[in-house]
Amino acid sequence: MNAAATDPPRTPGNTQLGKYRIESMLGAGAMGIVYRAFDPHIERHVALKTIRHELFESGERESLKARLRNEAQAAGRLAHPNIVGVYDYGETADTAYIAMELVSGHGLKQWLDAGRPLAAATALDWFGQLLAALGFAHEHGVVHRDIKPANLLVNAEGRLKVADFGVAHVASSTLTLTGAMIGTPSYMSPEQFTGEPVDGRSDLFSAAIVLYQMLAGCRPFAGASQAEVMRQVMHETPRMPSACNPALPSALDAVLMRALSRRPDARFQTANALRRALDVATDGTAHIATTAAEDDRTILEAQAVTLASGTGSWRGDSLPSLTMWPAALLAPVEAQLAAQIGPVARLLVRRAAARIADAPDLPALVALLAPHIPSDKGRAQFVAAFADASKAGTSRGPSPSSSLGAEDVQAAALRLAVYLGPIATIVAKREASRAASLRALHERLAAAISNEADRARFERDIGL
């Protein structure tokens, strides 16, 4: 389990549980509390998952113990590098516990709660590890039944591990009811909602929701209530992932839509089949490129898009119709969007502009881009910046020779955000306090861009 405890250490009244010495609390949930503990017999730290005392004292004692034993039975038979290992199960007079592998890292939920897409290379890498774990579990007769970001841990080395087999169904076990509706609504398959028997294809449906969220920055089914989520899962087809994140190739749309089919027999039947489909979808249609070592940003792009020298218009081999858009119109849109979501704004603007290249229209472009901003406040600021089309005119901003002012710093920060993302505002304010002139500020901001090609483009755009 996750070893990244941030709360002050808390321990039960007795700091010893069986042979384990309790050291601190790692987390708490509706069913139990997880502690960091030490096994003195083999001198190993473990995560100790216990049932809450108040629950254990209720009439649900036996069912809670059965669920915890089920988790130990399910995960204990699965020795795999992408599955949290279970070492021991025990009971005392006032609780039951399982000792498991202590994972130093964070839950995937922490990354996804920001509401932004992950770098595609990272998302696909983690998802591949998830598929490896699920494929292994299914081959050994175990269906997890509650795949969701909170149950997926990522350690410091980038290894993903599946945790919490508490509601798993083991083929040879009678500890769980196959007809029960068990899971987390936003990640449940249709057959889980209807209480039908589930198999590995249900886990793959839930896993596809996680991949969709990692790549698109939002969930495919996201109603305001559990009933609404259920209605969407049972009756609606979600938006294509690329509608949320135009940086995604259409081949990924096809894979995810099949993986999210309502009928189990229409989905990929095994984890390996889904993995092969993803390999095909990301080979040749798009490449996942990581920049030089000094620049750790990862982006998904179809082909390089450049600013045509001397034309004042956007063009590129992959998007030839962008020549209809004047550069002076797109540049501030890109800058404003980048201030909210980072460097991926460059690609999103080009993709959106290409969709309406036959009739360039600023309000339409803003409407296409606004949904990519996760926060309501940020989205409102972006739309307000272009409420009047004249705000996106051809002005390139203040002259480098002018004196420093708040507007100058903000304008420079917006241009810098194309390369550094939202942190650009902090960098610009910091450097403004050290610069004697606007030109000096621009030079200092250019120096903050580690990638040489990006730095050269920034210098050209800013007028250095």
TrEMBL record:
Q: Can you give the residue ranges of the Protein kinase domain?
A: 20-290
Keywords in alphabetical order:
ATP-binding, Kinase, Nucleotide-binding, Serine/threonine-protein kinase, Transferase
Xref: InterPro entries: DUF8082 (IPR058395), Kinase-like_dom_sf (IPR011009), Prot_kinase_dom (IPR000719), Protein_kinase_ATP_BS (IPR017441), Ser/Thr_kinase_AS (IPR008271)
What are the binding positions for ATP in this chain? 49
The UniProt record lists the EC number as 2.7.11.1
For the keyword Ion transport, the answer is no
Q: What's the superkingdom here?
A: Bacteria
Alphabetized GO MF terms = ATP binding; protein serine/threonine kinase activity
Protein name, per record: non-specific serine/threonine protein kinase
Task: State the organism named in the record.
Answer: Caballeronia calidae
Question: Source taxonomy lineage?
Answer: Bacteria, Pseudomonadati, Pseudomonadota, Betaproteobacteria, Burkholderiales
